[in-house]
Amino acid sequence: MDAAFTEEQGEIRRTLRELLLKRCGPEELRAAVRTRAGHDEPLWRQLAEQLGLPGLAVERHYGGVGCGPTELALACEETGRVLLPSPLLATAGLVAPLVAALGTRAQRTELLPRIASGELTGALALPCASLPAALGLTGPPDGAWAGGGRAGGIQARQAGEGRGWRLYGEAAQVLDGHSAGLLLVAARAGGYVRGRTLLFVLRPGVVHGVRRTRLTALDETRPQARVELRDAEADLLGAADGGVPEALARLGTSVAAMLAAEAVGAADRALERTVEHVRTREQFGRPIGSFQAVKHRLADLYVSVQAARSAAYYAAWAAGEAASAAPDGDSSGSDSSGGSESSRSSESSGGSGGEAGDAGVALAQALETLQSVAAEAVQLHGGVGVTWEHDIQLYFKRAASDGLLFGPPDRLRARAAELAGLFAGRADREAVAP
């Protein structure tokens, strides 16, 4: 592993940080989360036009930048520093890779250029509240999260030959689901005998049978919505031969790296603000930062942030290496039914246990670091740290919310240990014990 960033990667980070410093201050952030979209739409268009942020990992021949998980992680670290409310994670981290991996050639050609240009934002609707479970970060990629049978989850049935599909059910917590132009919906089809999880596309402008309700969330900077489907017309993404749980598990490594880097950026900025505060806040005639106990607490936090950053970078690098080693989903052997045979066979095997474990551990460490830094920041800011007018409470809410949405850390670590086989020997010994 080469730990040094390339000139292009450094330029992405510098340019994005400069732009966000100008356009995403505390007042701009508070105004953005209260808009109908839940984010600053002109800023999102500027990020798309100047940096190509929505299409950062989209291939060039679809209008993207053609980068990988490392560049996405660096971008997320910068957006995490300012708690930028944006559809970056849902659009660039979840929807675009799934369309690229599973969509037909026609679907990729139609949707990916619009996503890369920033014209179209996306959201992934899962019939469960746990995104890590669907991504294989807290359990095996067996599709159990999708529900089954005739009750629970989201059900899909074919309306007739050549008449598309109809969806029924509800997704409780969909990131940016209230404003996304494109919805990818995971649903069960085939009944009891041939039950399988498939992905469906709800095209922009389709409103019949679709109800979206923005939820009141603990963290306003990460909007969520409830999506209800009642006889909603949808198109199948790719082919009807399944493989969706495995494709999501393969995607889990890069998404976990993005989330880890985002948490590291938030923790780093919260620590910077705390250091600035203790240098100026006086107690007993001297800055509180001069007390040894405060110095020790801040030093411990600094070490935690740096360790979490290293883990996040390694996870992003590992995800990039795995992606570069995988067959190209748009090879010459692809057909109109959803990608190449080699691509589908590689996806059906799921992601490498090593990369998934590394990503899960990195995410767990980043989430715990953000929680520790945010809690100490509130303590060291004193009473002002919990007031609505101060910005540090926003980082505390982000830490608490992310721990619920993308954790808990102990389950992420338990899955990583399972993938590494750490407890296999212990189970065998217990089985033969007298």
TrEMBL record:
Belongs to the acyl-CoA dehydrogenase family. This is Acyl-CoA dehydrogenase family protein. The keyword Oxidoreductase applies. Pfam families: Acyl-CoA_dh_1 (PF00441), Acyl-CoA_dh_N (PF02771). Residues 324-357 are annotated as: Disordered. InterPro entries: Acyl-CoA_Oxase/DH_mid-dom_sf, AcylCo_DH-like_C, AcylCo_DH/oxidase_C, AcylCoA_DH/ox_N, AcylCoA_DH/ox_N_sf, AcylCoA_DH/oxidase_NM_dom_sf. Residues 6-119 form the Acyl-CoA dehydrogenase/oxidase N-terminal domain. It comes from the Bacteria. Its cofactor is FAD. Residues 324-349 have a biased composition (Low complexity). It comes from Streptomyces roseoverticillatus. GO terms for molecular function: oxidoreductase activity. Keywords: FAD, Flavoprotein, Oxidoreductase. The keyword Nucleotide-binding does not apply. Its EC number is 1.-.-.-. Residues 257-322, 362-417 form the Acyl-CoA dehydrogenase/oxidase C-terminal domain. It is an enzyme of class 1 (oxidoreductase). Signal peptide: none annotated.
